[in-house]
Write a structure and sequence with these properties.
Helices cover 78% and strands 0% of the residues. By secondary structure, it is an all-alpha fold.
Length: 188
């Protein structure tokens, strides 16, 4: 049942994210997910809840399965949840300066802590197999490229969604396939 929930929530979140992105322009600042949320606040809130739940359910299972002795992921999850709550409850409206600041701080907190959590999952498993090593580099490359694009082009739906979609697709693959289990790791 847990496996079905995690896979279904990730697939649903990918589909919902792709659907939600179409309410705004994919490549313009006016189409940023938070700006679209001003027009469609219920859709935005539902998107945030779905994405957070799918990401962290899969992340926490991966950590529990692959890195049993570490507990920092729970702190990252808790602080990331606070970030998502601020993102969803505060308007991305510059005329409401306090709410705007809290929304941006929450969004940044959620994004950075989630990237760190995903990156550390692969980094801490780097020596366990070639795919872990490969995805350590891919996660770093996607994160850095996304940051550079954010600095150059500001927020767009496409720039915001790429790392989220990557994690939503990859984490169930890590959890529920044998692709990431090398012979030496599987024997343990």
């Amino acid at each position: 049942m847990k496996k079905l929930f995690m896979i279904t929530s990730a697939v649903f979140s990918v589909v919902y994210t792709l659907w939600y992105m179409n309410f705004g322009s994919l490549t313009e600042n006016s189409g940023a997910l938070s700006k679209t949320g001003l027009i469609h606040p219920v859709y935005f809130t539902f998107w945030g809840i779905c994405v957070f739940t799918a990401l962290y359910a899969n992340l926490l299972l991966a950590y529990k399965t692959l890195i049993k002795e570490r507990k920092f992921q729970y702190f990252l999850c808790a602080f990331s949840a606070v970030g998502m709550i601020l993102t969803l409850t505060c308007d991305f409206d510059y005329t409401k300066k306090a709410q705007y600041f809290l929304h941006c701080a929450g969004s940044l907190t959620f994004s950075v802590l989630t990237v760190i959590c995903v990156f550390l999952l692969f980094l801490l498993n780097y020596k366990k197999g070639k795919l872990f090593a490969l995805f350590t580099y891919i996660t770093a490359a996607i994160s850095l490229t996304d940051l550079i694009f954010l600095l150059i082009f500001q927020e767009t739906a496409l720039i915001e969604a790429i790392p989220v979609l990557f994690a939503l697709i990859l984490l169930p693959v890590v959890n529920f396939t044998n692709l990431f289990k090398e012979k030496e790791y599987a024997a343990r």
